[in-house]
Amino acid sequence: MIDKVKNYQLKIPSNTENLEIIRNFVSEIARKVGFKNDDIHKIELAVDEACTNVIQHAYKEKGDLPIDIAVKLDYKKFSVIITDRGEGFKFEDINIPDMEEYLAELKVGGLGIYLMKTLMDEVDYKKSDGKNQVKMVKYFLDKKKKNKK
Amino acid sequence: MSEFEVKRKDIDDISVLNLKGYLDAHTASEFESALEDLVCEDRVKIIVNLSDLVYISSAGLGVFMGFIEDIRKKNGDIKMAEPSKKVMRVFELLGFQVLYQIFDSEQEAIEKYDTSNN
């Protein structure tokens, strides 16, 4: 738990070799603020999935374009905002309601977004001024997921 | 860089791939190559030992999904063994235990091949 807002920022080239650095960045902050291992893992995996989406889809693996990862802490939540300037996608259209059916059809794509939505308490996407932003939130207290999109 | 390693051992007509470290979008191609080699050699009775796998993301899961259909058409399979609790949680989130047989030990997975066609 923290008593004031804290901000951390990482700007890193969009290359899959940097996923490890990104995971370490968010997981160490999560550990410092007192999340247990389960939640730390959920946060690092959700962030990994979001950044992989940016690298592979938004930037089409062009390499070295920047991704901004911002971690914002306040008294009740841990927020991660991932910003890129690549091609956006219809985030809100991607929905996998039935995993059994999905797996039965042996589909591959879209698992990352499903994981993000399942692992985090809130996931939001917006596009403005040429920037795409995914914001994911994990509450410190074990609250029911609210306004989950 | 993300540490990841695939080690292969063949036991008669069964091949065991030991995954070690972090399986993510950066390292998935290494796992993919290992499975490709097996399929090219027609070695389709596959066990993936996960005891040393620390982390998996959807990129890693996608590798399994990319091969399983072809392998099962050839009367083979990919069975998994010894996942950590952390890795198993990811599998359970996606319902992988419905699609794949997951064993507590490599030996049980081998015996499953020995006692059945699949």
What this model shows, in words?
- The complex is a heterodimer of chains A (149) and B (118).
- Chain A has 149 residues and is α+β, with helices and mostly antiparallel strands.
- Chain A has one domain: Heat Shock Protein 90, CATH 3.30.565.10.
- Chain A has helices spanning 19-32, 37-58, 99-104, 111-119, and strands at 6-13, 66-73, 77-84, 122-128, 131-139.
- Chain A has a 5-stranded antiparallel sheet with strand order 1-2-3-5-4, covered by helices on one side.
- In chain A, a hairpin with a 2-residue loop joins strand 4 and strand 5.
- Chain A is globular, with a radius of gyration of 15 Å.
- Chain B has a single domain (4-112), classed as STAS domain (Transcription Regulator spoIIAA).
- Chain B is built from 5 helices and 5 strands, in the order ββαβαβααβα.
- Chain B has a 5-stranded mixed sheet, with helices on both faces.
- Chain B is globular, with a radius of gyration of 13 Å.
- The N and C termini of chain B lie far apart (37 Å).
- The chains are: A alpha+beta (149), B alpha/beta (118).
- Chains A and B meet through helix 1, helix 2, helix 3 and helix 4 of A and helix 2, helix 3 and helix 4 of B.
Give a brief description:
With 149 residues, chain A is an alpha+beta fold. Chain A has helices at residues 19-32, 37-58, 99-104, 111-119, and strands at residues 6-13, 66-73, 77-84, 122-128, 131-139.
